[in-house]
Structures are given as C-alpha cells and as structure tokens.
Design goal:
495 residues, alpha/beta, globular, binds alpha-D-glucopyranose
Length: 495
C-alpha cells in the first residue's frame, strides 16, 4: 500500500512537471475565478491509481531491461522539413515564416497528395537501430495533424488511401512494414498515436476557428459530436491493436485530451482560457486493447493513473533517481521531425545521456526523423553506429541492469546486475579526453574484491586506501565512457 502511495505521488508530480513544461508555450489568457479554484479530487477511483495488475507490473520489469529505444517521427511534414504538425496550430509561439495562415494550412493539409517516400526500407531502419544497440521502436502512426501512417478505414487521410501517391505500392502501410520488420528482428514495438486529431471535423470542427491545440467546441455542450470523436479514436486504436499483431506499447500523446479528475490548476491553465474537459474514455480503450493484448503497456502521457504505465519526461533527464518506471524521450537533433541539417548531439553526449538515464533508473527513447524519401539522415546513422560500438563493449553495464546507490557521483554513473552480485561503475569522459591513470571508485556498501574493465577481461590493478578504492588504469583505454565491473566479497549467504 505504502509503495502504492509513493508511486502515485511520483506519477502525479511527473504529470505536473510535464504540464508545467508545456505551459511555457501555453495560451495563459486570464482564468475565471472558478477555473483558478484549486481542483483536488476528494477520493481516488480505480482509474486514478497506478496499474497493479501483475501482468503489467511484470511486463514493466521486462521493459526496464531494454534501456534503449528508437523513436521515429515521420509523416507528411517531412516533405517540407518543418516541425511535425505544429505549424498548422494557431498558438502565439508558432511561426510560419510570415505566411498567411489559411493558405498555409491548406497547402500543409494537401501534403498527403505528394507523399511518396520511394526509398523507405524498414529493413534498413531496423538494421540501423540494431547497430545502435536499440531494443525497441516507437513509431508515429498518427501525429496531431491527423495523417495516418497506417491503413485506417475511418478516414481517407491515410498513406494507403488513393489520395496519397504512395498507396500505389502494395505495402504502402508503412506501420505494418515497420512493426513486422522490427518484431522479426527481436525488437519490442511501440505505436505512438496522437489523441488529438486536427484533421477530424469532430475535433477541430470546420465551422469554427481553431484558436489553439484544443478541441474547438465544448464537448459538454455538444456531447454527440464528442461521442463521435471518442468512437473514432476508439476505432483507430482498435485497428492499431488488432491489425498489427501483438504490439508491446501504445504510446498516447496529446496530454491535453484528458479526464476531469486529472486536471490540476496548472493543467487547467495549460488547457487555455476555455479549459474544456476532453475525456476520451480511456478505460474503454484500454479494456478493448488489453482484451486482444493482455500485457500491452499503455502510456497515456502526463495523465497519471492506471493508463500511464510509465512516465515520459520529454527532452530532459530527471535530476536524480526516480523509483517509478520512466523513459526520457529525446531528439537526437533539435527537432522530432526531419529538418535539413539538424543540429545533432555528439556521440559523446548521447552516450553520456544513456548512461545518466540508466543510472537513474530510466530508459532512453532516442528520436531520429527520416526525410521525405524515408531515409534516416546519414549523420544520424553515423552516431547510431558509434553508440552501438560503445554498447558492444559496455552493454553489460547498461542492459538488464538496475540502479545502484548513490546512482550518480561526479563523473561516475552506477548500475548493478539484477541479482545485485555485480556493480558497474561507468566513468564519463569528455570528447577526446584520456582516462586518468588513477581514479577512485565511489563507495559501495561492500568491499570490492575484483574490478575489471568491460571488454578487456583480467583485473584492473587496485589499491584500498581506508574506505577508498583506487584503480590504476591504462590511459589509452578511453572512449566516451569507461565501464568497470566490480565484484564483491561473498557474504555468508553467498551473495
Ligand atoms: C512534443 C512535441 C510533439 C512530439 C512529442 C514527442 O510534445 O510537441 O510534437 O510528438 O514532443 O514526445
């Protein structure tokens, strides 16, 4: 029970964090006193508590073993090399190079008529991801702009509809190719799906303006229309969970579509002056999805409760260890979508990010946006290969590990094997920096008796000086980060 309460508090905090983060960009027009009033649920319902179904709890433990995933934002927007979806949204932070809004939106929407990614090859992507050492994929089947990268019978706005030139290809359903290819190579498969759909007339009703990201009518005033939208969403998620084999993760974005109980004052501010409640009926969606895939992980981002099985800090790494399952999603460049000459982070930074995330108990979901032809930019692929080379040597300190106190200590990032018998101490090196000849290991609760360098075997020379353990390392042994395997004295219990 206590564990429950801690988990719940952590989830709630992280939901607030996500809301506050986006609030920077939100329309913070003045709130009415009623909207400002503190909204605290008096008692918690089933839906508000974290999932405790053992099938899901166990599955999360398996998911935690994967550590490193591949996120792909890909849609019609790649043709213009612009931000995914957002340029058709009227919020003050969005610019369109001064272009007239109506003309812009019309041409953006028509991008389905020219989308023809002739070089798309799911095998290539899967090979690139495998080379990087990634273990799961999360693909944008539908972003906020509503264009479906899968075959949906509930809209014509899809890659396999005849309005899109790519539909002429027999396997135009790229979601199918991605899911089947990655699955066949041992990856877990995750589907990103945007709850808000800016193309659907039951979300952005065409007879009114669309002042921001939200639904542009009050669902409470027009419950029939909102119900149509709920049915549409339910049906599309039905397709994704029933037509593509057993997917592993349903990754739901667009946290402003959320039930009333989850609307804190901060979130209410983020929702904008009208603050409509947009309850999509997640219990029904989850029930339907889990009837087909009982161990499906559901990530109803930032909402908290039963259907946010893990939290997803975006473009950031928590300050310290977090006990609940979590995943940092992060762009390799500055953008989620393909933009020409994106400013990719260095391999060194990316490896350090992975080590930092894993030491704090999370997974890293690293995003690369393919171009309009369906090709992953070469500069990104080079970095993926380099991360993979590092992981080939040091992966033992990353995959299937668990955090170890004190998690982070100066340059050190710590992990341990699941049985607790072995610790891993990763020393982060700056670009081109050589490993110092002598380093002091962080203090553990037991005495190290043997230390070796991953990928090398043998023992590293060490000296105990009081409670300090000094390691003597050959300075040439440096490449972004150096991982030591630490073994301890056996206790009486044989641990
Ligand atoms: C941000 C972006 C959204 C993207 C998401 C991925 O919320 O606005 O476009 O899909 O991050 O985490």
């Amino acid at each position: 029970m206590k564990k429950h309460i801690i988990l719940f508090a952590a989830l709630l905090l992280s939901a607030l964090g996500a809301g506050a983060q986006v609030a920077v960009n939100a329309d913070s027009a003045s709130l009415t006193p009623a909207q400002k009033c503190i909204h605290h649920p008096r008692h918690y319902t089933e839906e508000q508590m974290p999932e405790d179904n053992p099938i899901i709890v166990d599955r999360l433990e398996e998911w935690k073993d994967l550590k490193f995933g591949f996120m792909v934002h890909w849609g019609i927007y790649a043709q213009w090399g612009v931000v995914e979806s957002w340029s058709i949204c009227s919020e003050p932070w969005i610019t369109r190079d001064g272009r007239d809004y109506m003309t812009y939106v019309q041409s953006y929407r028509a991008l389905n008529k020219s989308f023809k990614p002739t070089k798309f090859d799911a095998n290539r992507w899967a090979k690139n991801a495998a080379d990087a050492g990634m273990k799961y994929v999360v693909f944008t089947t539908k972003h906020h702009d509503g264009f479906c990268m899968f075959d949906s019978k509930y809209t014509d706005y899809t890659i396999s509809n005849k309005s899109c030139p790519y539909s002429k290809k027999i396997d135009s359903d790229v979601t199918r190719s991605i899911v089947e290819t990655f699955r066949s190579k041992g990856f877990w498969t995750g589907l990103y799906f945007s709850k808000p759909d800016w193309h659907c007339p039951d979300y952005w009703a065409p007879e009114w303006a669309t002042p921001d990201r939200n639904v542009n009518y009050d669902p409470q005033q027009d419950p029939e229309r909102w119900q149509r939208y709920c049915d549409f969403t339910y049906n599309q998620i039905y397709e994704l969970t029933h037509n593509y084999g057993p997917i592993d993760i349903l990754w739901l974005d667009g946290g402003w579509v959320r039930p009333e109980w989850s609307i804190t004052p901060e979130i209410r501010e983020w929702l904008g002056c009208r603050g409509y409640v947009q309850d999509i009926d997640m219990p029904a969606i989850a029930k339907m999805a889990r009837e087909k895939i009982p161990d499906l992980l559901i990530v109803d981002r930032s909402v908290g409760g039963k259907y946010e099985n893990y939290t997803t800090p975006e473009q950031q790494i928590p300050q310290s260890y977090m006990p609940q399952p979590w995943e940092t999603c992060m762009t390799m460049g500055d953008s989620w979508s393909y933009v020409p000459n994106d400013n990719y982070k260095s391999t060194n930074t990316l490896i350090h990010t992975l080590c930092d995330v894993v030491a704090k108990g999370g997974n890293l979901l690293l995003n690369v946006g393919p171009d309009a032809y369906g090709v992953l930019p070469e500069r990104a692929v080079v970095r993926m290969k380099e991360i993979g080379q590092w992981l080939k040597i040091n992966g033992e300190a990353i995959y299937e590990t668990r955090p170890l106190m004190p998690f982070v200590d100066g340059r050190w990032r710590l992990t341990q094997s699941k049985d607790g018998k072995t610790a891993y101490a990763i020393y982060l090196l700056d670009e081109g920096e050589a490993m110092p000849e002598v380093v002091t290991l962080p203090k553990f609760d037991r005495n190290p008796v043997k230390v070796s360098l991953l990928g090398k075997g043998g023992s590293v020379k060490m000296r105990q000086d009081g409670s300090n353990t000094e390691l003597y390392v050959h300075p040439s042994e440096s490449n972004h980060a150096v991982a030591f395997k630490v073994q301890f004295e056996k206790t009486k219990k044989g641990r």
